[in-house]
Amino acid sequence: MIHINILILGGTVFLGRHLGEIARERGHSVTLFNRGNHPDIAPDIEQLHGDRDGDLKAVQNRAWDAVIDTSGYVPRIVRKSAKLFAQSTDHYTFISSISVYKDFSKSRLNETTGVSKLEDESVEEVTGDTYGPLKALCESAVKEELPGRSLIVRPGLIVGPYDPTDRFTYWPWRVMKGGKILAPGDPEASIQWIDVRDLASWILEMTERKQAGTYHATGPAESLTLRTFLKSCAATLNPKVQFQWAEEGFLLDQGVDYWTEMPLWIPKKVNMKGFLSVDNSKAIQAGLSFRPVQETIRDTAEWVKSRPSNADWKAGMSAERERELLEKIREK
Questions:
Q1: How far is 111 from 100, CA to CA, in rounded Å?
Q2: Distance from C-alpha of 19 to C-alpha of 30, rounded to nearest angstrom
Q3: In this predicted model, what pLDDT tens digit does every residue of 104-133 receive, in sequence order?
Q4: C-alpha distances out from residue 105 to 38, 60, 99, 172, 290, Å
Q5: What CATH number does the domain located at 170-191+221-273+292-331 have?
Q6: What class is the 5-160+192-217 domain?
Q7: Are 261 and 166 spatial neighbours (Cβ–Cβ below 8 Å)?
Q8: Stated pTM of the model
Q9: Rounded to whole angstroms, how far apart are CA atoms 23 and 158?
Q10: Which phi and psi (to 5°) does residue 209 adopt?
């Protein structure tokens, strides 16, 4: 295996954290550039501190074989970094998102599908509406500054230990708690996600090969339904649980927020079936592989046990709300 010197922009939260750890395991030299907000994370990895929007002094007079940008959201700021590193690195990876697409009404979107655009490209506020178009502009900035030397990675939902969003974590946690569980919508709905460790390992493999181009990075390789996933959670963590499936109309009538209050659920009504069924064949052909679903479930469950009991959950349904809805279903 080759040895390379890697700079990770970000690197202390979730994907960046795993990239740093796995890169070290693969024998690479690793440096993190961040604002220094998490000094207790990765203390054994060199960290340079600064602000991407105005304070890049710490990285200006050094060179790296590869740069991996995990923290770019605003095109102007991403271009500034890409322009600087175009002079000091051979390869630049930008972590984008499948949210760049403007139309998710069709399944199996591929990397050539049209992306969203902003009417005013000077907008820099990152919101639910601007996140995708801004990421698309960031991609363009990177490709323009490093033509032929950039890897654009568009992940779907990233899951696993240290996930700050809780969109996946809610389900292993809820299954561990036991009892009757409210399950949303169509049991046969397709879902996609990728274990953060599989994503990080593949990004590093692509970086080692200096692979350029744009790739979807989500999984698994085969089709996965919501029912199959929840049954896997039960089989892995708590076989005694029972799932009470609630129809889409009922959940919407009750004001249940999809994707957040009910993670992994997107109603058919919103016409976004493509969001959880993109074409990942290009990345698979380039070596992307996936650990067993049960392993991701188990490891996420083990990690969530280590969180404080009063941790602030970013997604998922409260116990009180779930009991209320289950009772209404029972009364029906």
A1: 10
A2: 9
A3: 999 999 999 999 999 999 999 999 999 999
A4: 39, 44, 13, 29, 26
A5: 3.90.25
A6: alpha beta
A7: no
A8: 0.96
A9: 18
A10: -90, -5
